[in-house]
């Protein structure tokens, strides 16, 4: 981290995140109900996730495995034994009137994640990450949270496994937060524990405070000191569900708090709600304190021992390591390496193509052509499930010179994505097979015969005239000859 010195009168922005990640498991964390998303309200519910009397929770092994993977990826301490607690509060989305969560013995503590922010590396400390159950969801009818006519409650989501990842207050700007969220999401996807496409699978509570420079004794904004952090009044903004939303909500909050301070008004410690459609944060309630929740141990679940099991759980190579390896092993620049490691599927596909052909050709095809066309269609590589071998065959047609790179990219690839035909079908139907050498030679001779003016221009030293002749040959061959080859053939013929 580069030390940044504060100037007199500066107001320093401090941000810490609580990120709630839905873990991708088939069933809920404490019962056998499906976690599948459905439009039918209250379809996936049972006595356990509805909190009916006498129902007992049974911990889902898959959720614990996912939590251990996350812990390993963020280099956290995973204790041999961990416990669950009840966090008591009333809210209509919480049928038991308490949430089963973890308290002083979380499954992961003291981890970190490195992020690149505008060229500099920042290490963000992750104080803890713990397992808990998601509450149900509320649907406000006829208005927003504060203006609705009435509110419906849906318990399909209640009991979905969540990992709450709590960072230290290490961020100094909303754009750092955005970079962190992007990196975190990549890591979670690589681990296969998270589905970014799922609505509400990543939800963020963002804490922000503004600390005046004269309260930072060290003078270094990365070393603010715990007393200044603790005494600062922070707001916690809830209801953020995207990276961009987090950046916008925090930028709003940063300005709002700075304005208050500059006008000599106090910032209240409170919980605020991000109103996405209006682009503002609104006050919800004063911030509850830990003692309000009356945490106590969940007696219906025994302590969880992961001591021996955790060593058997392995994780794949992570995006940052893979990015660096791609640069070293395939000679890619940082930008291509980043694009090619953006998801595990893209990286895996790149490596298959690079192994079979050439790393540069593979980079052009996967990073530029394929991702470019997918992006344009709002598609993901996962939408091509089962068809990636067709893309490989298309690259092969280019590598073996059977079609031109231009036709492959602009006609074959686009048609493949639009109408699901195979590359071979498209090449045949559109007559894109590269024109044979004889045919090109024939077209060269014709072009020379038919254009005596261009020929005499060329002969009297006007080298540009060759381009006109190349154009004529390209026209005669329907664009399926290689312009470089045509140029050479023309020169050879004219010099003969
Ligand atoms: N001065 C500060 N300015 C901004 N963020 C802060 C500051 N001090 C602490 N934070 C952040 O506030 C968050 C506290 O989260 P934590 O889950 O521990 O408590 P909480 O929000 O009080 O509890 P709950 O889970 O009930 O919402 C952390 O992300 C931490 O980095
Ligand atoms: Mg909080
Ligand atoms: Mg919290």
TrEMBL record:
GO molecular function: asparaginyl-tRNA synthase (glutamine-hydrolyzing) activity; ATP binding; glutaminyl-tRNA synthase (glutamine-hydrolyzing) activity; transferase activity
Keyword tags: ATP-binding, Ligase, Nucleotide-binding, Protein biosynthesis, Transferase
Record field: catalytic activity: L-glutamyl-tRNA(Gln) + L-glutamine + ATP + H2O = L-glutaminyl-tRNA(Gln) + L-glutamate + ADP + phosphate + H(+); L-aspartyl-tRNA(Asn) + L-glutamine + ATP + H2O = L-asparaginyl-tRNA(Asn) + L-glutamate + ADP + phosphate + 2 H(+)
EC number: 6.3.5.-
PANTHER family linked to this entry: GLUTAMYL-TRNA GLN AMIDOTRANSFERASE SUBUNIT B MITOCHONDRIAL AND PROKARYOTIC PET112-RELATED, GLUTAMYL-TRNA(GLN) AMIDOTRANSFERASE SUBUNIT B, MITOCHONDRIAL
Role of this protein: Allows the formation of correctly charged Asn-tRNA(Asn) or Gln-tRNA(Gln) through the transamidation of misacylated Asp-tRNA(Asn) or Glu-tRNA(Gln) in organisms which lack either or both of asparaginyl-tRNA or glutaminyl-tRNA synthetases. The reaction takes place in the presence of glutamine and ATP through an activated phospho-Asp-tRNA(Asn) or phospho-Glu-tRNA(Gln).
InterPro entries cross-referenced by the UniProt entry: Asn/Gln-tRNA_amidoTrfase_suB/E (IPR017959), Asn/Gln-tRNA_Trfase_suB/E_cat (IPR006075), Asn/Gln_amidotransferase (IPR018027), Asn/Gln_tRNA_amidoTrase-B-like (IPR003789), GatB (IPR004413), GatB_C_1 (IPR042114), GatB_Yqey_C_2 (IPR023168), Gln-tRNA_amidoTrfase_suB_CS (IPR017958)
Ranges in coiled-coil conformation: none
Keyword Oxidoreductase included in the entry's annotation: no
Occurrences of domain Asn/Gln amidotransferase (ranges): 348-494
The protein, known as: Aspartyl/glutamyl-tRNA(Asn/Gln) amidotransferase subunit B
Subunit structure: Heterotrimer of A, B and C subunits.
Family: Belongs to the GatB/GatE family. GatB subfamily.
Record GO biological process: glutaminyl-tRNAGln biosynthesis via transamidation; translation
């Amino acid at each position: 981290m580069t030390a940044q010195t504060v100037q007199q009168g500066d107001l320093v922005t401090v941000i810490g995140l609580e990120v709630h990640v839905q873990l991708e498991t088939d069933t809920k964390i404490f019962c056998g109900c499906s976690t599948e998303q459905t439009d039918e309200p209250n379809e996936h519910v049972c006595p356990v996730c509805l909190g009916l009397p006498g129902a007992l929770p049974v911990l889902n092994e898959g959720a614990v495995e996912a939590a251990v993977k996350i812990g390993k990826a963020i280099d956290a301490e995973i204790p041999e034994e961990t416990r669950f607690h009840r966090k008591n509060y009333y809210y209509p989305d919480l049928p038991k009137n308490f949430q089963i969560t973890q308290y002083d013995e979380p499954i992961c503590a003291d981890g970190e994640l490195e992020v690149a922010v505008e060229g500099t590396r920042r290490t963000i400390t992750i104080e803890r990450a713990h397992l808990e159950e998601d509450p149900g969801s509320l649907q406000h009818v006829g208005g927003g949270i504060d203006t609705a006519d009435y509110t419906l409650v849906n318990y399909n989501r209640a009991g979905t496994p969540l990992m709450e990842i709590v960072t230290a207050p290490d961020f100094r700007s909303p754009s750092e937060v955005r970079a962190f969220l992007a990196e975190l999401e990549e890591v979670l996807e690589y681990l296969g524990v998270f589905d970014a496409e799922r609505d509400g699978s990543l939800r963020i509570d963002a804490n922000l405070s503004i600390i005046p420079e004269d309260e930072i004794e060290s003078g270094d904004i990365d070393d603010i000191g715990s007393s200044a952090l603790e005494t600062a009044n922070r707001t916690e903004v809830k209801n953020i569900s995207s990276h961009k939303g987090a950046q916008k909500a925090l930028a709003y909050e940063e300005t709002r708090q700075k304005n208050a301070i500059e006008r000599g008004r106090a910032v209240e410690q409170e919980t605020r709600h991000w109103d996405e459609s209006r682009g503002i944060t609104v006050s919800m309630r004063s911030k509850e304190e830990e003692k309000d929740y009356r945490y106590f141990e969940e007696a219906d679940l025994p302590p969880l021992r992961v001591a021996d099991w955790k060593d058997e759980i392995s994780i794949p190579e992570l995006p940052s390591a893979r990015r660096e390896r791609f640069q070293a092993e395939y000679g890619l620049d940082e930008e291509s390496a980043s694009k090619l490691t953006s998801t595990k599927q893209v990286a895996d596909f790149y490596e298959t193509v690079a192994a079979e052909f050439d790393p540069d050709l593979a980079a052009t095809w996967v990073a530029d052509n394929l991702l470019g066309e997918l992006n344009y269609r709002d598609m993901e590589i996962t939408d091509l499930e089962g068809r990636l071998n067709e893309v490989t065959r298309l690259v092969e047609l280019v590598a073996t010179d059977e079609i031109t790179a231009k036709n492959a990219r602009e006609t074959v690839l686009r048609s493949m994505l639009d109408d699901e035909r195979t590359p071979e079908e498209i090449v045949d139907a559109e007559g894109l097979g590269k024109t044979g050498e004889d045919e090109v030679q024939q077209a060269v001779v014709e072009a020379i015969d038919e254009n005596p003016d261009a020929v005499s221009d060329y002969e009297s030293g006007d080298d540009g005239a060759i381009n006109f002749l190349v154009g004529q040959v390209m026209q005669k061959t329907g664009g399926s000859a290689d312009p470089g080859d045509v140029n050479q053939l023309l020169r050879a013929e004219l010099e003969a």
